[in-house]
Amino acid sequence: DANQDDIPVKSRKLQEIHPIEKEEILQELEKIVEKKEKLEISEKEENLDSGMEILDQLQSIFKSYPLWTANLPYTSFLTLKFNAISNRGTVTGGAGFIGSHTVVELLEAGHHVTVIDDCSNTAPPARVGGIPPSLERVQQIVGPLMAKRLKFVLGDVTDPQDLDFAFGLKKKHAVIHFAGLKAVGESKEKPLSYYRVNQGGSVALLEAMERANCTNIIFSSSATVYQPAKTIDDLPLSEDSPTGGTTNPYARSKLHVEEILADACVANSNLSVVNLRYFNPVGAHESGLIGEDPRGIPNNLMPYVSQVAIGRRPHLNVFGSDYQTHDGTGMRDYIHVVDLAKGHLAAMRRFNSHTKSRGFESYNLGTGQGTSVLELVKAFREASGKEIPTVFTERRAGDVAWLWCAPNKALKDLDWKATRDISDMCRDMWRFQFRSMNPSGYVTDNSEERESNMSSEISDDDLDESKRSDSGLSSDEDNATILPKLKFTMSPAKSIFHRYLNKLTSSKKHHGL
Ligand SMILES: O=c1ccn([C@@H]2O[C@H](COP(=O)(O)OP(=O)(O)O[C@H]3O[C@H](CO)[C@@H](O)[C@H](O)[C@H]3O)[C@@H](O)[C@H]2O)c(=O)[nH]1
């Protein structure tokens, strides 16, 4: 039924699902239950991986058909059991841009997550004991069932007591360490702050992990640790490409933490470190509910372009037009933040009990594709339908002509690759840009700065008109008090089901069933 495919799966009721499909899904559910029973699920480590896989399969069904799976007699029973087998982890800096997107992926995969964040670079909770607005949005995205698995600690990653508190109560399976300062320019003005938070925080965290007997950590590193490519022949950058020759305290702090982690692995043979080198993370969650909300004038290209498109800035300064690239502007490996977040979930596989790989291992997370400044601007014009005036200026000090990676190692070891392209990145960023302009957007402390930097007033009509055009949002979605319903552009039921079946077959092979 062609019409049926147009309805988002999430909002379809049982009676709207084709009877044959329904029957197939029910049979699959029965099989999962049988398989699960055989596992004698407990909190024992060896059962965690198999349990997680089953959970994964179930989640895709629950997520696709919440309206009717909620009524199945064994749903609550299964949920209870799965609560007992999911992994627990701590995410530092989980309220920030990449952190919040990763928390969505972790919760959706069934993990229990404790976030520790001092909210120094995101809006803090509105009340004592509350959670930051970015994580409230995360809860809306994942729904009430998964939201319960999120805990928040307002704390400082350099403070041992705060860390012990975050690690407290239940044993944690793994840590994902995002917390850190990240502005290249600022790092030259305040190098000591960068070393205190980035190095000091990482050392404090490793010590807290030792106290809590946690041996798995994923670290947010950066492409900036690589030596700048002198010629195009130095590209793409692989994990073996030379590092060092860094030009600022931010880059040095990332490289130092990599070295600290590698040393810690030498000293403790149980430690497992997955070091992820991000290329240029951009975009936002497809719901438009979470994204990057930089303070002040954005340093980075995509947030700047987005603010020009919405009228907050008059034009984009294009830094340099005489690079040795096809159009003279700098080229980067932009990666959608949701792909990046999924990369963290994939990295968690290295911690599975029966396949656990110990020691320090680095992975590039990028698409392997270079995009120039002018190409990105063009894609953003297409996504937004807005003019984006550009002015060519001098090169920015410290910028390189090109930077892109070879992401093959992550594909080989982690079974991960980026699937979203530059137009997806622009579309989702544009969607989030609208939301953050709305009264229901993130509560930020830079609203005054925003007002004064408005290059032109945007009328409500203008916003409404653009929203109706191609941003995928309808005009009733910017209600100030009630947050908009999520509209996922999920695949139709049939393809979800097939994906699920493929997964089931491959996991059967994996377990020799
Ligand atoms: O207003 C602007 C901003 C940027 N650019 C250009 O856009 C490209 C991308 O710049 P930007 O978005 O600032 O990213 P990078 O300079 O590549 O740095 C990012 O990517 C690094 C990893 O490669 C991280 O370490 C840094 O923290 C992060 O800011 C470069 O060619 C810039 O010259 C402009 O032309 N105009």
From TrEMBL:
Its cofactor is NAD(+). Its EC number is 5.1.3.2, 5.1.3.7. Keywords: Carbohydrate metabolism, Galactose metabolism, Isomerase, NAD, Signal. InterPro entries: Epimerase_deHydtase, NAD(P)-bd_dom_sf, UDP_G4E. Pathway: Carbohydrate metabolism; galactose metabolism. GO terms for biological process: galactose metabolic process. It is an enzyme of class 5 (isomerase). Residues 441-478 are annotated as: Disordered. GO terms for cellular component: cytosol. It catalyses: UDP-alpha-D-glucose = UDP-alpha-D-galactose; UDP-N-acetyl-alpha-D-glucosamine = UDP-N-acetyl-alpha-D-galactosamine. Residues 91-366 form the NAD-dependent epimerase/dehydratase domain. GO terms for molecular function: UDP-glucose 4-epimerase activity; UDP-N-acetylglucosamine 4-epimerase activity. PANTHER family: UDP-GLUCOSE 4-EPIMERASE (PTHR43725:SF47). This is UDP-N-acetylglucosamine 4-epimerase. It comes from Oikopleura dioica. The lineage of its organism: Eukaryota, Metazoa, Chordata, Tunicata, Appendicularia.
